[in-house]
């Protein structure tokens, strides 16, 4: 169903790798709601993924950018305004990667070059993106910026490894930069904290299958899907949420406020 929530709005969507990506589902929903956008991803992901399919389907252009490189981001923002014909109303940062997770290093024995790389890709890239948008004055008034995060920023999930620390940093950047973006440009900045979701990044985390099943049993509404996340993001891009800013918004079926559920208790009393 379409509500035309984003009619006439222009945006940039980072992080659509394949049809499972949360950014992919979001791009489809933004398109349905009448928004136009450019898609972007790291050059390597453009070669490995299937983003051109999405571009064709949504009538959008793909502009490569490694989100850790300022010059790539500057080129992206300039080209996006050219292609879309004006300033930017909405931005989705949907980027995460830990080399320590990929290489199977334990949280307690990290390779710190990998730690640094993962932090740059997963957290600092959000600061870099916002700093380019801010300094180029590329956002429209009452624009909206969203980054995706996970509750391991607040609570311990051992296998989430150094991504937990990256997400804590990412959420802090949203608040700190959100202050300046709000004060100076009337732009809102929020993070959406999403349930575990079966994507390339999600499934890279050790024990993902057990974990997603556990979260499902703990959450009164069950896990939020990638489509649910896309819908929430649409609402955050729309004019219906104009004064929501500096928030970490849980889209998790209630998981974050649960202690225990009867479904989980039953497992232990069998
Ligand atoms: N899947 C989950 O369980 C889950 C839960 C909560 C939050 N999230 C977050 O959602 C976001 C999207 O992840 P996803 O689950 O859709 O997985 P995904 O693997 O489909 O998306 C991750 C994206 O990050 C991109 N990326 C990596 N390095 C980059 C770089 N240097 N420059 C630009 N892009 C780069 C990848 O190419 C990919 O498109 C991430 O921030 C992730 O941490 C995921």
From TrEMBL:
Pfam families: adh_short_C2 (PF13561). NAD(+) binds at residues 15, 21-22, 95, 167. It catalyses: a 2,3-saturated acyl-[ACP] + NAD(+) = a (2E)-enoyl-[ACP] + NADH + H(+). GO terms for molecular function: enoyl-[acyl-carrier-protein] reductase (NADH) activity. Its EC number is 1.3.1.9. The active site is at 150 (proton acceptor), 160 (proton acceptor). Keywords: Fatty acid biosynthesis, Fatty acid metabolism, Lipid biosynthesis, Lipid metabolism, NAD, Oxidoreductase. Pathway: Lipid metabolism; fatty acid biosynthesis. GO terms for biological process: fatty acid biosynthetic process. SUPFAM superfamilies: NAD(P)-binding Rossmann-fold domains. Belongs to the short-chain dehydrogenases/reductases (SDR) family. FabI subfamily. PANTHER family: ENOYL-[ACYL-CARRIER-PROTEIN] REDUCTASE, ENOYL-[ACYL-CARRIER-PROTEIN] REDUCTASE [NADH], CHLOROPLASTIC. This is Enoyl-[acyl-carrier-protein] reductase [NADH]. The lineage of its organism: Bacteria, Pseudomonadati, Bacteroidota, Flavobacteriia, Flavobacteriales.
